[in-house]
Write a structure and sequence with these properties.
Blueprint (H helix, E strand, L loop, with lengths): L11 E6 L1 H6 E11 L3 H8 L9 E5 L2 E5 L20 E4 L2 H11 L4 E11 L2 E11 L2 H23 L6
Antiparallel strand pairs: 1-6, 2-5, 2-7, 3-4, 4-5, 6-7
GO biological process, one term: trans-translation-dependent protein tagging
Protein name: SsrA-binding protein
Family: Belongs to the SmpB family.
Length: about 160
């Protein structure tokens, strides 16, 4: 038997979610990418300080970029601290970027960051290929969410009404 310990599964923890994205957009497809960050940005993320509300993604020159994500400056940083809002490169396979680039060129389809998370010691970003919802779609989504919540509440309480 070897004395090496078995590898543990990497822990996955959510840092922040873009809750508004699922309300405003219909998510057609998802992709998990890596993200290029500075050291002080990673330290701010460890403190859970990030905002995805204004963020969006774009494909430029065959590369995937994250725009307008707000990571506050690291409090204990020095003069080499990072800018709070800057363009950040996303790491994905060229084939996947080209596939999504063709879809983004369609009318009404955009790339929206959905969630930023820890994958072991790495920071990952889940982005979605999204299409804007109409008002009636938003109402339908809210109705379905409320119905699921009501069913769960009824099942949990153990009382079933049979009319």
């Amino acid at each position: 038997m070897s004395s090496a310990s078995p590898q543990r599964a990497r822990e996955r923890r959510t840092i922040a979610r873009n809750k508004r994205a699922t309300h405003e957009y219909l998510v057609l497809d998802e992709l998990e990418t890596g993200i290029v960050l500075f050291g002080t940005e990673v330290k701010s993320l460890r403190a859970g300080r990030v905002s995805l509300q204004e963020a969006y993604c774009m494909i430029r020159n065959g590369e995937l970029w994250l725009m307008q994500m707000h990571i506050p400056e690291y409090a204990q940083g020095n003069i080499h601290n990072h800018k709070m809002v800057r363009e950040r490169k996303l790491l994905a396979k060229r084939q996947q970027i080209n596939k999504w680039d063709r879809k983004v060129r369609e009318k009404g389809v955009t790339l929206i960051p959905l969630e930023i998370l820890w994958d072991g010691s790495f920071v990952k970003l889940r982005i979605g290929l999204c299409k804007g919802k109409k008002i009636y779609d938003k109402r339908q989504s809210k109705r379905e969410r409320d119905d699921k919540r009501e069913i769960a509440r009824t099942a949990k309480s153990g009382r079933y009404d049979s009319n």
